[in-house]
Specification:
By secondary structure, the chain is an all-alpha fold. It is built from eleven helices and two strands, in the order αααααβααβαααα. The chain has a two-stranded parallel ribbon. Belongs to the Integrator subunit 10 family.
């Protein structure tokens, strides 16, 4: 059903159905979760129906694929917002580095707009390659993109500091320390991380595709 809604361009409904499906899956062994996207389709068939086992090891990767496809439509349709960009970065960690080309397109989008505000970033992003790319974006060499991605907004941090001199330096130090903490988390189970994201942030995901 989610596929039908995707073809109709109803991405909020796709997201809702996919997240409902994920919450109802029973197989909880993350070691079995692999991408089952390599499906053989008979040649010469313009239309086909693909059936899969009702197991998390096959359904979860397909759900991620639908969410990524829906967010991609949103991001590159001219109706992009920072929330959709942030959600996409988190999901692209799953089955990394399969979607590196799409990830670099997202990075170019962020660089072109000159900023990114997404305060859930460090809750869910642990991929070293992605962390390095974001750190590069913030540097002079990477375009000095304004990144407001700390758990507490950098704007709030700046407002809370009583001495204005050195505020930017303090924010930079906070960013550097947080990046270092994330690198230490790089061995965490990505499946569990993404699964937690999809269950905990369900309303935000649906909202980002509704706007």
């Amino acid at each position: 059903m989610a596929c039908c809604y995707h073809c109709l361009g109803n991405y909020p409904k796709v997201c809702e159905l996919v997240l409902d499906t994920i919450s109802g899956l029973q197989d909880s062994n993350p070691s079995n979760i692999t991408d089952q996207s390599q499906i053989n389709v008979p040649e010469g068939c313009s239309r086909h129906l693909v059936l899969t086992l009702c197991k998390e090891s096959q359904i979860f990767p397909y759900c991620i694929k639908l969410l990524v496809a829906s967010l991609k439509e949103k991001i590159f349709s001219g109706k992009c917002d920072d929330m959709a960009l942030g959600h996409m970065i988190i999901l692209l960690q799953y089955d990394w580095p399969k979607h590196t080309d799409l990830f670099h397109q997202v990075m170019q989008k962020i660089k072109a707009q000159g900023s990114l505000t997404y305060n859930f970033f460090f809750n869910y992003v642990i991929n070293i390659d992605i962390l390095e790319e974001l750190a590069l974006l913030k540097s002079i060499e990477g375009g000095k993109v304004s990144l407001d991605i700390l758990p507490t907004s950098t704007k709030i941090i700046a407002q809370q500091r009583t001495v204005t001199r050195g505020v930017n330096k303090g924010v930079k130090e906070d960013f550097k320390m947080t990046i270092e903490k994330q690198v230490k988390r790089c061995e965490e189970n990505v499946y569990q991380l993404v699964h937690t994201f999809l269950t905990e942030e369900k309303p935000l995901l649906i909202e980002s595709l509704t706007k």
